[in-house]
Amino acid sequence: MSPKPIHVLNGPNLNLLGVREPEVYGRDTLADIEAACRARASAHGRDLVFRQSNHEGELIDWLHEARENAALVLFNPGAYTHTSVALRDAVAAIAIPVIEIHLSNPAAREAFRHVSHVAPVAKGVIAGFGAHSYILAIDAAAVLLTAAERPGS
Ligand code: DQA
Domain 6-149 class? Predict the structure, then answer.
C-alpha cells in the first residue's frame, strides 16, 4: 500500500494570491505555490492533495476527510485562523498532525491577527516566509512522517 498523501488546505481569499495585497502576500499565485509544493513533496517521495475554499464548512469537511485519507495536513486557514472555533474543533477532532501555515507573520500585523484559534491544537506553526512557508512546511511534514514510519516508533 502506498503511503497516504499530505493534504494542503487553503482558506478564504487565498485564491486571489498574486493580485491580493502583493506587498503583504507576494506575487506568487496559488497555482505557483501548488506547483512548488508538488515538486518539493515529490522530492520527499510524498503525494499531495492541494485544495482551496472560501467556505468554512467545506474546510471542516475536508479536515474530516483528511482524518482517513491523509498522513498529515498543512493548513492555511486565512482569516478563519482568527475567528473560527469550528475549525479549531475540527483540527482537534482528527488524530493526524496539522501544521498551520501563513505567508505573512500574523504576530507582526494588526492586533486582531494575534490570536490563532488553530495554533493551540496544531503540531506547529510556520509563518512569515511568504510562499516559502509552504515549502518549509512540506519539509517539516516529511521529517515528521519519516520519524513516524520508522520501525518501533
Ligand atoms: C494569512 C494571514 C491571515 O491573517 C489573513 O487573514 C490571510 C492570510 C497568511 O497566509 O498570511 O488571509 O493566513
Answer: alpha beta
Distance between CA atoms of residues 10 and 96, nearest Å:
17
Tell me how far the alpha carbon of residue 129 lies from the centroid of ligand 1, in angstroms.
Answer: 12
Clarify whether 80 is annotated catalytic: no
25 CA to centre of ligand 1 in angstroms: 8
Q: Write down the number of H helices and E strands in the chain.
A: 5, 5
**Tally of CB atoms within 10 A around 104:** 17
| 8: helix, strand or coil | strand
pTM reported for the whole predicted model: 0.96
Residues 51-105 pLDDT 10s = 999 999 999 999 999 999 999 999 999 999 999 999 999 999 999 999 999 999 9
The answer on pLDDT for 1 being more than 60 is no
Shortest-distance Cα residue to atom 8 of ligand 1: 78
Cell numbers of 105, please? 507573520
Q: How large is the C-alpha radius of gyration of the chain? A: 15
